[in-house]
Amino acid sequence: xxxxxxxxxxxxxxxxxxxxxxxxxxxxSFDVNEGETVALVGESGCGKSMTALSLMRLVPxxxxxxxGSIRVGARDVRALPVTExxxxxxxxxxxxxxxxxxxxxxxxxCGRQIVEAIRLHHAESKAEARGHARDLFGEVGIPxxxxxxxxxxxxxxxxxxxxxxxxxxxxxxxxxxxxDEPTTALDVTIQAQIIDLLRGLQRELGMAILLITxxxxxxxxxxxxxxxxxxxxxxxxxxRRDVLASPGHPYTRGxxxxxxxxxxxxxxxEEIEGVVPPPAQWAHGCRFSNRCPLVFEPCVETQPERFxxxxxxxxxxxxxxRDGGGAR
Length: 328
Description:
328 residues; alpha/beta; four-stranded antiparallel β-sheet; 34% helix; globular
């Protein structure tokens, strides 16, 4: 059985609100095992990206991690000195950020940016690091690698910029890759290429992937396990096939019914009424209670506990527990 590479326990990350601070990541716990892909799924504003930034200790101020533990292997990430944490970032753990055009330095050539990342973690000369960068470009499918090293980000297409970000993230052969919306804003052909690339690199390197996305199609292609997040909390977790075929939480079912290719050809696409409220307006009980079609009194008053649906598959839902997992 694979060992746990990343362990997150009771993670709370807060930001100031008009009447105090609010946890935008509120008691989140999960594991990522060696070599597996775990997808963190939910609408925009649910706390997915902030969870990822918390893992890297990159929460933008005035946000801060309030409590909880983050362990990568045997190391407590929250207890590491700043210099050691810099070695972890881009070392054992790398991250592909959501928008490559804003993540890459627009006034530096792509090759120079990767050379700097390589030399931060490896004792290589500039010439050696440039050769290493050229090899990485080839690995991620960038044609004319030598020429592309001297290109500025704005001279590359969105798909090419995303490949540059992936190459940079792979410079140290990480054990864990955090991919935040790696196919957003790409056309479907390029999306498919990026998915195939990540799948192939994972097989080759044996790395684990934490995939942050709202795209269930990408989840179906890549994930082994799924975590469904809503308003700062995990609403459902389980193996991909179980979650997608037999979702236990009304929110998960709403996400699936709103997507073409997931519902049947004769079924009408549905939408989840309302939007994710801001943290200051999150419900006291179940966070989804003000949008849920199955809401009843306990949902408003108390936070639900995990209800076991099957081995490894559970949902935090009063209605699911009331109906024995049969609510649909």
